[in-house]
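Researcher: Next entry: Glutathione S-transferase omega (Elysia crispata).
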Amino acid sequence: MSQKTYYSQGSSFPATKPGVLRIYSMRFCPYAQRTRLVLNHKNIPHEIVNIKLKNKPDWFLALNPLGQVPVLQIDDKIVPESTADCDWLDDVYPENRLQSADPYRRAWDRVLTEYISKVSASFRGALLSNDPSEIQTNIEGVKKHLQFYEDKLKARGDGPFFGGSKPCIFDFMFWPTFVRLPFIAIIKENPAANIDENEFPTLETWAKAMKELPAIKDDGFDIERQAKFFRGHVKGAPDYDMFLGK
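Model: Predicted structure:
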């Protein structure tokens, strides 16, 4: 099935195939990107069904009443939500393990994942505000929360990844948020929002290492295209078909 087709209200349910893993996704969604990255990093065969989130099919809401992507499906098993998805994938497809064998480190990876909401709140606060003072406050909030990650990664001392010499599940949880932070500078035309690599040198080394991972390269993230989609999303008119075939 074409990964470039979007399903919306009124569309027919695309029949599943026995034993074939499917992800219900949306190309511009950071949460769906998390699961796609884990699928690709672990080389798990799968198919993609893209959903128009502003005009969801009824059959998709039956799969996940929350109406959110990502959702994984294989036969009669359905797993929604990116953190649950990625944990489940790592357990069911244990090769190239992403979760630490150390219970303490695994617990802290979950803490780090929960803290992403702090970054996201400041990020969205800066993007959705038109008040210069509020935008600046949220930019400072983003950098404050990045300092938290800078300090935690530096303290681990076995990088370049949060997982050490190899990425762990948190690396793929954080990347979709981190890589979208330049939206603020682009959309608000505010150079002060740019992340100074000298201010966060450990995160800069991490980002360079992440960009070299095949899963990251294959995902084809383009910041300008993503920002263009986000502008439409904020206005309530997201163009899901943007750049299809390109």
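Model: Note for the record: The radius of gyration is 18 Å.
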